[in-house]
Amino acid sequence: MQKQFIEDDVIHLLKHYLPAQATLKDFVHHNSLHSFQEKEFFDAIFSANKIFGFQVTFNFNEYRKLYKQGRIRSEIIDRVISQSKGKEQVELYKMKMLNGQFEQDFIPRVGQLRAKWKEIYKMDLDNRVQPLLFRILASYIDQGISLWPFPFEDTGLVNAIRTLEKNSFSSFFKSKRAKKCLFDESLTIEDLLTILVGKSNYFSNYLFDQQYAHKGWSGLFSAIEDNDDTIFYKKKVALKDLIHLELLMEIDALDSNLGTDWSPLATNLPDKVEDYLEKVNHSEIEEILQLWQEAFEWDYYDEVLSGIQFRAKNKVAPPVQEETFQAMFCVDDRECSLRRYLEMEDPNCVTLGAPGFFGAAIYFQPFGGKFYDKNAPVAADPKHLIKEIEIQQVRKNEIFHSKQTHTLLNGFVSSFTIGLLAGVKMTLDLFRPRMQADISNAFSHMDVHGKLLIENRDLSEIENGWQVGYQISEMVEIVESMLKGMGLVEKFTPIVYVVAHGSSSANNPHHGAHDCGACSGRPGAVNARVFSYMANHLEVRDRLAKRGISIDSNVQFVGAMHDTASDEVVFYDLDILSDSNQLLHLKNVITFESALDKNAKERARRFASINIEKDIKKIRKEIKERSVSYFEPRPELGHGSNSLCHIGERERTKGLFLDRRAFLQSYDYRTDPTGDILKQVLGPLPGVCGGINLEYYFSRMDIEKMGAGTKLPHNVTGLVGVTNSSDGDIRTGLPLQMVENHDPVRLLMMIEQSPEIVLKVIKDTQENYDWFAKGWIHLVTIKPDTGELFQFYKGEFIPYHPISKVLHAESMMKVIEEAPEMITNQILEATKENIPVYTY
Amino acid sequence: MELLVYTLILTPFLSLVISFLFSNENEKPIFAISIAGVVINYLALIAILFLWIGNDFDPIFIKGPVLYQTDDIDFTISLFIDGYGLVYLFTSTFLTGIIIVFSKNYIHREKGYKRFFNNIKFFYLGLLVFLLSGNLETLFLGWEILGVTSFFLIGFYRERYLPVKNAMKVVSLYRVADISLLLGIWLCHHYFGYSINFNDLDGLHSPQPHIVNEVFYQFAIPGLFLIAAMVKSAQFPFSSWLPRAMEGPTTSSSIFYGSLSAHIGVFLLIRTAPFWEGNYWFHYIIAAIGLVTLVLSTLTGRVQSSVKTQIAYSSLAQIGVMFIEVSLGWYSLAIVHFVGNALLRSHQLLISPSILSYKIHHQFFHFIQPKKQGSSSFWQKIKLSIYILSIKEFNLDGFMYRSLWNPLKKIGNLFNFMTFKMTLGMIIPIYFAGLYIVYNKTVIPNVVLDYLPEFFALFSLIIILKAFVERKSARNAWVLIITNQLLQSLAFGFNDHFDYNQVHIYLSGIVISGILGLWVIHKLKSQNKNHSLNQFQGNVYEHPRLAFVFIVACLGLAGFPITPTFIGEDLMLGHIHENQFPLMIIITLNLILDGLVIFRIYSRLFLGRHQKSYHEYAYRSS
Q1: N or C: less crowded end of chain A, CB within 10 Å?
Q2: Is B387's Cβ below 8 Å from some Cβ in A?
Q3: B356 vs A168: CB contact, 8 Å cut-off?
Q4: Is the peptide bond before B544 cis (omega within 30 degrees of 0)?
Q5: Are residues A246 and A210 located together in one domain of the fold?
Q6: Does an H or E element contain A451, and which?
């Protein structure tokens, strides 16, 4: 039976399975296996493994070594087995886990059909087609590296090449037939496939093979096709065009090597075709690997839950004195240590967490900007535009990146001028690193002293379909839901800081991955300023008071941004502060500064180049310098090691050392007996935190196929992505230097609320429910009064009793100083670097 | 003074040897030893500079140890420094220092940290030997080290397909350059009758009395050196290897392919200038090559859409300009141009990853849509044609493949009818018969004897061609190479005035490395490892030590300088007579091919993707 080939359906399917990463300027974390997310987690990852050949877990050898090393405890294995297989099966499965012999070698489905070219015709088709194809694709997409842009780029790839070929005396093609096919506009992909493959039931598989052989380029084409905001220099981009061109080039390569008398690939193949995407049946290997991975995860979770339960039962006494200041932070895992140190430096301060766009989902246009930046979670669809209307500093140019140095004459002159100077500059860059024009600076996204237009002046003021600025009523909504969500509805301190975060780094095409994930990979300072403006607005406050949130007139909100790489905090709009607040602020700045010192020291423990026994100020300086050093591929470690998300009062996690591994969302169950607030708070979290966590998980598990590999050979291509070499494919995912310290475990979300309410809330939206029900995120609730734990398992909450001992440290700093440092980034070594959960 | 100059070579050598004592995890000592080596050299260079100035800028010449000497041949390591050399030495040492400090953090925790530093130091050592060389033999020694380390540096990510493929591509071109240089040296021996030193180089004026066709030498010697220089400096038509060499970490691409390695051809031309200065044809040829290169590279550079290849092509265009400067006799200008271009391109490459955020930010505020391209007028059509050609790099990437490798492959396939066993069965009796005749030349009439060298050389060429197209078994290919070498030595054996001692030196190298290689292949086989040459096996993943042993065997078999094979090879080449032109061509092809086959066996067996899928491996295209 011949299966019908419907071109659009297959391309649609293909687009679904290709990586969804846009250009690097818009780096946003997402689940690398998003296309399998409708399946249950382990079914999904093992299917992806068999279909595409991704590594999705460690191998047996690695798990077993982790067991011997003590990273996976025997008790936890027992527990994992008895939960999923039953108590009586423990011995049997444990024996298989520890001693079973399994052959893990296999050939993935995708790629098998096209491999036959080499078998049958002794010809390496990819080698003949890909280098030129990639060069054409890169030149077509190129945003501004080449001096000579691809002509006719507004007509689509295939059309542009048609025009090009028609009007030139040279050609990309060697054979007549391919060129004839190019000019025949009536030919479809299906027609070309008929020439190449023959039998139509093989077409779909052929396209999967072909496109997955360079999934980076294909994914990028598909992503730009779906959202062309991701490129500034607009080109007409379609995956279909890429496929069309590649098929033509394949015909060309075959014709010019074999003449025209070769028969289509599938001629002698059986009529019955295995559908690549057909359900994958899992074997015992997967069953055992699943147990290992669960044991690896629960070994850590159990330790955390013991600590959480301990804290719930032994509450830290609330501050005796009056609270000095409140500071809202992003939920980001990198902020949890800064918050910890603020609270240590000033026990009377209060820190809170919420997604770092602070309710203001916006587009932002800096002064003089020709485009817009989205400063909102990826899933959000902002309706408002915030414009910068005044600036004080203009960014300088960097002559060494000038295109002029690449022309013949200017290149000649450059050699004798800036060329000789380059020697001096190289030396300075090495020994005196400093901020420069080509280093991405978190504080240059928006001018530190610039002015923003936040309040809408006129309803008719619409730009690009967005309303310019917010109306009062909209501001009230945002401020109210933010404050209520965090449970901050009374006892405001004179200054409430709204601290966003961003990250500076040099020589880092992936810098967007270090910025705020809740702001689509950009620094969040704009959002912090916008929120502060709203909360300071007198009319907003009047209306808030009517809704039960009364904020004293002496209370002022101050926007700020923390640079997570250089460990600096900049405060915005300080001129609005009243005199008394001015004084309080100066005191708080001292608190911030010494907290930042300690934060820098804690981060420095994972950097081999910094000796953390040095003077703390020196450490801080070195931390700052590495954020502006060209030679530093690890300005910071990003979300590496992230694994937890706590939704509840800060009091419950205070006094618990979580090693910068937790997203912390503030939420007060007392203000939310119905769960309505929880529903709104929970809304963006699975997408943002789960997306980050899973991208790290998969990049760590398969750094080559899902991660971007090591950063060091990366070659910026077309300003849209990185390739490894001149003839290579675009690399998607995270580079090794970002994930090497990451223990790939799924996110454990802990909510401080009764299981009944949580169940009701998560069942409310199918999308969020699936995250938990299909096991992409683990969920545990902490019963508010008793501290009892409930694990979400197969659709219901069952009691969980942690078995780990709770460790206690007299001085956390001492533990940090003495913590081991990983020698290699192999998992067995890397995992040793994490500090266990301590109470302090 | 002598001591200072020796220091320049001994320090990097010691710093290389010492770091073998450490394992990959000892990053700090590895770095410390590396940087110490460069700093000591830098100080020594400054001292040498002052002594040189104090000595009225007189070039320095030092006759070093004699490696081999007979009546008519002496193989001596001698060193020579002049102004050009000093500038290049300073630039290289400075850049190497910068790159080592840069790499300390950049390469941190990379699987091949130690390997990277060792390669950098080995490269630097080769560069110094090359720059300091006082005669052609020493120069060749440095040149070969550069070639081999380039193979390692380009293929640094040895588990991925493209780096290994491109490393092979570059090395196969380099092999052509190596053999050109070797032949050039051989012709010089013939011409002068002794090994010449750079300090008393005075052009091709004083041939040996028996030289008849002097014009031939006046073109062939500089011509061969020019080919070597063109390949190493990626001049037309060899340009396409340079962008493809950017496979390793940014730092190594920056220093070598951005600057030091790519300019070596310019230096070689200046160093060998006395050979061609008197021949006005060469001024035109060198200028023409420079001109074509600068035009094509400028055009190709204009359409490059990735930052590293763009820098490679713009650097290349400037090197083309340097060729023109050299052809005009403006050596000082060329050398200053080299310094500026080398520093500029190194720096641009080092900061190349930052171009993404910089340019995107710049575009955000200043983007202007480029003008639409027209297609109606004739001039516009010409422009579009050039655009297509530039994207295709003027078809230069396939040049060597089309013009040399493919024809050779076709010839090799003609002998497919001979199975491996049949070949061996044929060779063994012939070889032993030949061996007997060599030691008892009287048993054969002189007429036949005269043709025997060509006969055996041709026979060995067929063998190496068979090895060249061998795809099934690494062992068979390896055995064929050994046989090829044995037959070659027989060919030499029939040349008169022959010193058996030299053959024995040569054979000792072949036998030891041959057996070592066979042992490694046998070891892989005994562990059920596939040893076909059809695809990359990536065995280095599980057997890094075995890979190291095998590469040593490969270098030995390929006649890497300092190995007995090389000394023997070099000595024996000296015995080919100038009228034995066919023999020379056959031997040349032999040498080019055996290097290639040996490197291919190594990369197929040990490099590329490891064939088992229990761990992560990269896509072929990545």
Answers
A1: N
A2: yes
A3: no
A4: no
A5: yes
A6: strand A451-453
CA distance B287 to chain A (A): 16
Confidence at residue A761, expressed as pLDDT on a 0 to 100 scale: 96
Report CA dihedral (B401, B405, B406, B410) to the nearest 10 degrees.
Answer: 180
Tokens of B286: 């060198």
Element (H, E) at A558: strand A556-563
Give residue A317's pLDDT band: very low, low, confident or very high (50, 70, 90): low
Reported as a pLDDT band with limits 50, 70 and 90, residue A1 is: very low
Q: Burial level of B545, CB count in 10 A (0-12/13-18/19+)?
A: exposed
Are A416 and A375 found together in one domain?
no
Q: Is the same domain home to A185 and A289?
A: no
Whether residue A219 sits in one domain with residue A72: no
- Rounded Cα–Cα distance for residues B557 and A465 (Å): 72
Residues of A in contact with B250 (CB under 8 A): 712-714
Which residues from chain A sit within 8 angstroms of residue B342, using beta carbons?
Answer: 419
Torsion of CA A353, A357, A358, A362, to 10 degrees: -170
Which residues lie below 8 Å from residue B172, measured CB to CB, with a gap of 6+? B400, B405, B596, B599
Residue B288's contacts (CB-CB under 8 Å, 6 or more residues apart) are none
Q: Does A789 reside within a domain?
A: no
Place of tokens 């059809």: B534
3-state helix, strand, coil in chain A (%, to 5): 45, 10, 40
Inter-chain touch A438–B101, beta carbons under 8 Å: no
CA distance B211 to chain A (A): 44
Q: Where are the domains of chain B?
A: 2-359, 418-606
Residue B508, pLDDT score: 83
CA–CA separation, A827 vs A216, rounded Å?
26
Which residues, 6+ apart, have CB-to-CB distance to A189 below 8 Å? A7, A240, A243, A244, A247
A421 and A546 share one domain: no
Nearest Cα to Cα of residue A26 among A364, A465, A362, A375: A375
Residue A738 and residue A594 share a domain: yes
CA distance B472 to B532: 5
pLDDT tens digits, B461-515: 999 999 999 888 899 999 999 998 888 888 877 766 666 777 777 788 888 999 9
Q: Which residue of B has its CA nearest to A822?
A: B109
HSE (side-chain half, CA atoms, 13 Å) at B129: 26
Q: B317: which chain A residues are within 8 Å (Cβ-Cβ)?
A: 408, 411
pLDDT averaged over chain A? 94
Q: Counting runs of H as helices and runs of E as strands, what totals does chain B give?
A: 25, 2
Q: Coil, strand, or helix at residue A748?
A: strand
**Strand A556-563 with A568-571, pairing:** antiparallel
Total of domains in chain A: 4
The amino acid that residue A373 corresponds to is: D
A270 domain residue, yes or no: no
Assigned domain for A275 exists: no
User: Residues A211, A358: one domain?
Assistant: no
Closest Cα to residue B182, out of B131, B140, B152? B140
Strands A462-463, A373-375: pairing kind: unpaired
8 Å CB contact of A740 and B388: no
Q: How far apart are CA A454 and CA A613, in angstroms?
A: 46
User: Residues of chain A with pLDDT > 90: what percent?
Assistant: 91
- Domain membership of residue A424 as a residue range: 399-431
Mean pLDDT of A69-97: 95
One domain, residues A700 and A627: yes
Q: Do B375 and A416 count as a contact with CB atoms less than 8 A apart?
A: no
* Phi, psi (degrees; rounded to nearest 5) at A462: -120, 135
Residue B572 contacts A where some CB pair is shorter than 8 Å: no
Q: Which of residues 346-375 of B touch A (CB under 8 A)?
A: 346-348, 350-367, 369-370, 372-373, 375
